[in-house]
Specification:
2 copies of one chain form a homodimer. With about 190 residues, chain A is mainly alpha-helical. Chain A is elongated. Helices cover about 70% and strands about 0% of the residues of chain A. In chain A, helix 5 packs across helix 8 and helix 8 packs antiparallel against helix 9. The first copy, chain A, has 9 helices and no strands. Chains A and B meet through helix 6, helix 8 and helix 9 of A and helix 6, helix 8 and helix 9 of B. Chain A binds a DNA duplex (19 and 19 nucleotides) through helix 1, helix 2 and helix 3.
Chain lengths: ~190, ~190
DNA sequence: ACCTGAACACCGTTCAAGT
DNA sequence: ACCTGAACACCGTTCAAGT
């Protein structure tokens, strides 16, 4: 429909770059403690800038969230490539799944944003999400080719399972995090048994 | 910590009851279209009452959500009892799980509220949630006693799986709802195979 | 090119005045 | 016992004025 979604860019001028970095650092801290709907005014004030400066660099909340989580998604993609080179395609997939669940639940509300991004091209994180989606799909295909995962499982279904696990983790309290067990149970359902 | 959570009560006076019902109807509609964080002012205005009247009946958003979903949870408990009387304990559990997932995802944000209520006694829906939790646990225990479900699955784990499925459904668009398949895959992981 | 902060809009929440 | 709506607070968002 509309044009390309706005992707935040690190400014070239020194003062702009300093503020950009300070806002991102404050945003990550705020998201982790208050979730994806943390107060933008609070973030600006923690970063020591006026609210207009935050909006100049990140015109929408989605752009700020995307910038704050870009590194993590890139790491996930890079790690998938390293894992794909390993000997055991099932172990590679499982290790990546565990890592993905942890990243998806970095802060409350993130997994919902990622799930929407996956299927909405109008979203800042859509491109990164698609790349990550492809990484996971590649690992899945390899594990299926080796007859270690049921052949009828699609990449979309894999991501529903991962997102569900991440959501459980996002809801968890330190004393009660069911996401590891959740993933374990899911794996029982998708791995092939001899 | 603090006293009992406030549970909304249907008033005795006719005008109060009329408003109470109108607010609930408007709230259900608003929650379904805008999620659990729908505008309260909009709900009051749709119900034809002043904002103060909404607050008089439902002093917190949680109280309004609880009142709007109380019937559904009661039905779920009642249905569990009927199912428990049936001949096949696995079928009973599965039927109830499917129904629970649908109810948990009545509107965006509900499953998160329910998940919190399950473990936070300070919440209006805690009592209802606990009753529902017991219903599910009973069906689970019966299916395990019949050797149809893995014996090491706990009720808390069952609810994590149900909540994850409901969350996937909550995110879904009409053309893409992966929750049925999600549940199917989960069932592969928890049923015992001969 | 970047920053500031006042200004406006919207919504949640409370409460004094009413019937 | 219940209703009304003004009042206050808080936050998102824009924009004119500045460097």
């Amino acid at each position: 429909m509309n044009g390309k979604p706005y992707i935040a860019q690190r400014p070239k001028r020194a003062d702009g770059r300093r503020n950009y970095d300070a806002i991102l650092a404050a945003a990550r801290k705020a998201f982790e403690s208050a979730g994806a709907d943390a107060s933008l005014e609070e973030i600006a004030s923690q970063a020591g800038v006026a609210i207009g400066t935050l909006y100049r660099h990140f015109p929408t909340r989605a752009a700020l969230v995307e910038a704050a989580t870009r590194d993590g998604l890139e790491n996930l993609v890079a790690h998938a490539e390293r894992l794909a080179a390993g000997p055991d395609p099932l172990e590679a997939l499982l290790a990546w799944m565990r890592e993905a669940v942890v990243h998806f639940s970095t802060f409350r509300g993130l997994v919902g944003i990622l799930a929407q991004s996956m299927y909405d091209e109008g979203t800042p994180s859509h491109t990164m999400c698609s790349a990550m989606h492809r990484s996971g799909a590649d690992l899945l295909r390899a594990a299926q080719a080796a007859d270690r995962v049921r052949p009828d499982l699609t990449p979309d279904e894999l991501f529903d399972l991962l997102s569900g696990a991440a959501w459980v983790r996002e809801q968890a309290t330190p004393d009660r995090d069911g996401s590891a067990r959740f993933l374990e149970l899911v794996l029982e359902g998708i791995t092939t048994r001899g």
